[in-house]
Amino acid sequence: MLVTVCAADEDPTHPRVRQASVQVGVIPPGPLNAITDVAGVLVGQTTVVHGEKVRTGVTAILPHAGNLFREKVPGAVFVGNAFGKLAGSTQVNELGEIETPIVLTSTLSVPRVADAVIDYMLALPGNEDVQSINPLVGETNDGYLNDIRSRPITRKDVFAAIQNAKTGAVEEGSVGAGTVPLPSAGRAASALPRVNFRLPSADIWLAYWFRPTSAACSPSPALPSEKSSVDTRFATNWREPKPRQASSGMIRPTALA
Fold it and tell me: Strand ranges (DSSP E) for the chain?
């Protein structure tokens, strides 16, 4: 799926491209036209606003509500015409597995967010003996309208985004990691990290592209401008995931300081 974060145009009367008779891809969208149309996927967001200078946040994507370290999902990272601070991509490409929530945040906050994700995963019940965690954290440069050097994202903000993740409609606009990602004009597609994973409970592959957009939110000719669509291109040679039992709900960390 293609996830496009656009913080400039939030006019509810602005039509989707499908409403303008533009067909994206060959597969019709789901009921919500969101990544959460796939059963089990959850999205959570924390928006951080302080005074006149801080406008940033955290967005967390959970492939399922269980313990991702114990119930990993097959995955890969594909980067198209880009560079970025995508923490955790090496292990995903080497092992073909994702073992933490996929978290997006401000460029200079990636290390702090990665550290918080490690804290979160180590505190989950069943992970008491874990000695290695590979946090997967992507970024968008929100320095134009945010005091990016202050790095205001905290452990609490990251935990809130993960713990508040839910199914259903996904909030759009100036929220979470998409609060103000406004790169320079002409570089709307300068960062395109894509994360693929397949849910153990469904024979379907998801592809997440995190694409900061320009102030005008002009569509790139190389990418569809619709919010989301199923990408049928995926890599091969994935290891089959172990069957996972249905979870009774979100697993929460214990004994947190």
Answer: 2-5, 42-50, 54-62, 73-79, 97-98, 102-106, 136-140, 193-198, 205-212
Would you say residue 37 lies in a domain? yes
Angle at 102 between CA 97 and CA 106, to 5 degrees: 140
Residue 153's contacts (CB-CB under 8 Å, 6 or more residues apart) are 48, 56, 57, 58, 105, 106, 109, 112, 113
Residue 241, pLDDT > 90, answer no
What mean pLDDT is reported for the chain?
77
Burial group, residue 179, by CB count within 10 angstroms (0-12, 13-18, 19+) = buried
Instruction: Return the CATH number at 119.
Output: 3.60.70.12
For the residues 98-113, what does the mean pLDDT come to?
97
Q: How far is CA 244 from the centre of its chain?
A: 22
Whose CA is closest to 257, among 96, 119, 125, 77?
119
| Residue 230 belongs to a domain | no
Quickly count: other Cβ atoms within 10 Å of residue 70's Cβ.
Answer: 15
